[in-house]
Amino acid sequence: MRRIVPLFLILLLCAAGVHSGHPLRVMSWNVENLFDTVHDEGFRDEDFLPQGEYHWTSYRYWHKMTELAKVIAAVTEDGGIPDLIGLCEVENDSVLTTLCRRSLLRHMNYDYVMTRCEDARGIDVALLYQPARFRLLEHRSIRVPSREHGLHPTRDILYAKGLALAAEGLDTLHVLVAHLPSRAGGYEGDRNRRLAADVLWTTVDSILSSRKRTGREVPRVVLMGDFNADRHDRVFRRAPLRMTDDVKAQGTYCYQGLWQWIDHILVSSSLATDAPAHPVSYPWLLEENKTYDGQMPRRTYRGPTYHGGISDHLPIVLDLSL
């Protein structure tokens, strides 16, 4: 069971993976409540404190950080370093600093940007990127006007624009990371999810319409994240981007024994993919489902009980040609 990637191998792979002929590797992952152990003023994070219901200690925090880094290192070993990584359910700048600067990932030279939203628990989305392959030009949070519609605030959408290193030189790339509201919220959650989707597609439409203003080719757009919806859900009805799911794969999330694709990577028509986005399903990311048949992601918590896993979602990976 492969759990540890040698440090020298990580460094070697990083050095080999940043040349211009290498595909742009994109990874998206809901990392299940990546909280630190300190109260974030103004947000309901008390459950994830050492004295809280989940007894979230420094040991558990660092164990999860190490495991997250090992997964990204293993993905690197299997096909190249992820140039862009969209993360969902990260609490704040502190956890990203720890992940990028103090875990095994410190040797992989990631930079990051993130949102700072009004979600009650304070969970955000973030983008990790390799500066050698993606030169960040600008980024911003896009607010979903939930409060104005009488709904609970939800996560912002992260937008980043940069220059991506391609075989022919530098190309502008627009990247969005989203975490749409949960399906567990009933009617209100559904309304909120559709509202967030409307904001998302309006943003993408605005990016794509720049072609008409400038006369250039279709802008290159990558959208990734946890949509809490499968590819047939109505939130995708007006999506102007192409879904890249590997429909033959079992999915990214398991609910009551049923696997579902609720995490997605979508791209514009100007981006080529040699193969569909696929879930990363290393044996050590999975465990036996003792209630239902088959397997399920090895999650960090089952209810309030610490389980020692990494996430209740599997990451997905897609290679793009620029």
Describe this structure in words.
It is a single chain. With 322 residues, this protein is an alpha+beta fold. Helices cover 22% and strands 30% of the residues. The chain is built from five helices and 19 strands. The strands form five sheets. Strands 1, 2, 3, 4, 13, 14 and 19 form a seven-stranded mixed beta sheet that branches. The longest helix is centred in the middle third of the chain and has 23 residues, at 186-208.
Topology:
Elements: H1 7-16, E1 24-34, H2 58-79, E2 84-90, H3 93-102, E3 111-114, E4 124-129, E5 134-142, E6 157-166, E7 169-179, H4 186-208, H5 210-214, E8 220-226, E9 242-243, E10 253-255, E11 258-260, E12 263-267, E13 272-273, E14 278-279, E15 286-288, E16 295-297, E17 301-302, E18 305-306, E19 316-321
Parallel strand pairs: 1-2, 7-8
Antiparallel strand pairs: 1-19, 2-4, 3-4, 5-6, 6-7, 8-12, 9-12, 10-11, 13-19, 14-19, 15-16, 17-18
